[in-house]
């Protein structure tokens, strides 16, 4: 018992220390975004001057708009592709099913730096210049597994008897999908889309290698700004990004949680 208590206490201390290590710097960044001092010096003096300066910084705003556009298209594409893949996966031969699983999990095991460089070299080998469609394709490749994993976990918990009952009552495959399958998996589809959105929004490596000339994303713009001199406007835009991320997580959790409750609520 004593050893069990000691291990649980040590595990709790480790978790607390890890959380502090990860999130205290974020809290400091957010607080300093409201500090009047340009050099993040103390004492703290509340001010919104850096948000006013951010509103006039066209480069940061445009890069944020570009990142939002990329992330939105990536999120929608990953949600649709994950739904199509996982619905059709049970009907594939075993070899193709294993190949699809392998291709889906591969971007999770390959470092994004290596993947981005390899995609760039492939572009050069076919004598193509960097372009927006290929950049979108790169974002979809690295973000797709996250959406697929969320959706797969939901489909595994789905009762097959629901689709069987619909078919036995004379419903077509499309009607069964529209009236039975889609309402059940919709929360996971939306949650997976939000997760892919966040992965794409903060992606630096793929964008760095594939972004077209004259275009920039928020991670690249922040990296460039830090190289030439840090300004508290970075704190301000980072605070907004953290807020967007927390909002997406909250929405995804709420949608997925409400979907699970509605799914099992009728059985009680």
List keywords for this structure.
mainly alpha, single chain, 268 residues, 79% helix, globular, 11 helices
Structure classification: mainly alpha
Question: What separation lies between the terminal Cα atoms?
Answer: 38 Å
Major beta sheet, specifics? Answer: none
Mean pLDDT: 80
Helicity level: over 70%
Count of extended strands: 0
Q: SSE order, as H and E?
A: HHHHHHHHHHH
Oligomer kind:
single chain
Strand content: under 5%
Over all CA atoms, what is the radius of gyration?
23 Å
The best one-word shape is globular
Explain the layout of strands and helices.
Blueprint: H1 2-32, H2 49-56, H3 58-88, H4 94-109, H5 112-125, H6 132-156, H7 160-168, H8 173-201, H9 205-210, H10 218-227, H11 233-265
Helix pairs in contact: 1-11, 2-11, 3-6, 3-8, 3-10, 4-6, 6-8, 7-8, 8-11
Provide a descriptive summary of the structure in words.
The chain is mainly alpha-helical and 268 residues long. Helices cover 79% and strands 0% of the residues. The chain has eleven helices and no strands. It has helices spanning 2-32, 49-56, 58-88, 94-109, 112-125, 132-156, 160-168, 173-201, 205-210, 218-227, 233-265. Helix 3 runs antiparallel to helix 8 (173-201) and helix 3 runs antiparallel to helix 10 (218-227). The radius of gyration is 23 Å and the shape is globular. The protein starts with a helix and ends with a helix. The model is unreliable at 260-268 (pLDDT under 50).
What is the structure about, briefly put?
By secondary structure, the protein is mainly alpha-helical.
């Amino acid at each position: 018992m004593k050893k069990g208590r000691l291990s649980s206490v040590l595990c709790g201390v480790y978790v607390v220390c890890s959380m502090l290590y990860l999130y205290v710097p974020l809290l400091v960044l957010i607080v300093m975004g409201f500090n009047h001092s340009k050099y993040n010096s103390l004492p703290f003096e509340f001010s919104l001057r850096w948000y006013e300066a951010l509103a006039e910084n066209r480069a940061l705003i445009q890069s944020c708009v570009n990142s939002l556009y990329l992330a939105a298209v990536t999120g929608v594409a990953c949600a649709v592709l994950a739904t199509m893949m996982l619905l059709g996966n049970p009907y594939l031969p075993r070899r193709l099913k294993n190949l699809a699983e392998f291709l889906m999990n591969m971007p999770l095991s390959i470092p994004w730096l290596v993947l981005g460089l390899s995609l760039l070299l492939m572009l050069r080998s076919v004598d193509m210049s960097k372009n927006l469609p290929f950049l979108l394709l790169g974002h979809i490749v690295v973000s797709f597994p996250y959406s697929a994993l969320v959706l797969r976990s939901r489909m595994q918990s789905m009762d097959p008897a629901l689709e069987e009952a619909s078919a036995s009552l004379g419903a077509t495959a499309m009607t069964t999908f529209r009236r039975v399958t889609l309402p059940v998996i919709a929360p996971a589809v939306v949650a997976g889309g939000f997760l892919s959105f966040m992965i794409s929004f903060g992606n630096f490596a793929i964008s760095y290698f594939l972004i077209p000339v004259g275009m920039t994303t928020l991670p690249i713009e922040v990296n460039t700004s830090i190289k030439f001199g840090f300004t508290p406007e970075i704190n301000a835009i980072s605070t907004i990004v953290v807020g967007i991320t927390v909002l997406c997580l909250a929405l995804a959790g709420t949608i997925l949680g409400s979907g699970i409750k509605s799914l099992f609520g009728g059985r009680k």
